[in-house]
Model the fold of this input.
Amino acid sequence: MRASALPLTALLLATAAHAAPVRVEFWHAMSGVQGTVQAYARDFNASQTAYEIVPINQGNYRELLPKLQAALRSGSAPALAQLEFTQFPTLAQAGQLTDLSARVDDLPGALRGDIYPAVWKTGQLGERTYGLPWNVSVPVLMYNAGTLKKAGLNAPDTWAQLEGASRTLATGGRRPLVAAADAWTFEANVLSRGGTLTGGERPRLNSPDAVDALTQLARMSAAGQAQPRTLNEATRAAFDFARGQNTFVLASVANWIDARKLPFFNLGVAPFPCEKEGACTVPLGGATLTIPKGTPAAEQAGAVAFWQYLMQPARLADWVKTTAYVPPRRAAVPLLDDWYAKNPQLRAAHAQISRAVPRPTTPEYAAWTALIEDAITQATTGKLSAKAALDAAQARADR
Done:
């Protein structure tokens, strides 16, 4: 029996060696660095013969989601899909994403335990894991360093200081702060005061801290100290920031890569303003890598293997240097020492991971963000008071 088994084993090995690799289609929203994503896939494909990762850029997060939903309906979903943190809960609740809890439990402890707990939670719903972390960001305050230096001002640490600096700089028609109708940075504003926009599974869009935050933005806008902007006006806002019309912008740390290329000024980056010392936190931004329901086991294994490849410390260090995203695991941080030495402001920005929390995973929260953004616009343009705007948003969320 032993002698006859040897030829069979050799035959099986030879067959496996010549088998085509399992194709793993990866839909992502990393338009600005899609060349980097393609390079990672090529490197992974060259490192082994079992899987072939095929990355396909699908635009931004908001463009990718409906494409994935259509693919799920038609049975043509990819094996791996990148979803923004507020997008995956709805699909997970509907049973359209694979529960990855067992696969996470099987990961090497050195990897599983090295990822920041808050980062792990960004892909969890109801104690089950549906997403694997990769691109993680934190909110920051970007500013025109030359303007502050000329005025003898330091980068503000609190919202009170930010309003005071904006009051000082609001001359010659300049509106120092860009008051963007963006749910994520408003969420950070509320958290910086020790507040929240949800309570359990229920909305708290008009919580006292939310009203305080929006009242301040509305007050600054009415006084000519802030410039209201919608997300559709991002290009114009960047132009005004570059030409000195605005001094402060609240954004993702990942925006540093493009913002530093803007002409005519020196870019500064500071941690997000903390209004309530000891109680303020920051919401993590970014996306999670999910596996649609119905993906064959072999493709699932390939997707997880590629994710583990992306999570290697050296590769994460390269990713952080390319994108300015926060390293999601501790082992990558020492490999960034030289880069941080050249970019100390990013070290301080990334250090916010120590007080970061995941965004709400209530499935309805994605819809509530649109209500929040509408309320911001209504209040900062003077159409409604902050309280009235948030009360209206709360009433709509409660329906």
Remarks:
- The domain at 15-137+285-354 is CATH 3.40.190.10 (D-Maltodextrin-Binding Protein; domain 2).
- The first helix runs from residue 2 to 18.
- Residues 158 and 273 are 4 Å apart (CA to CA).
- The chain is about 45% helix and 15% strand.
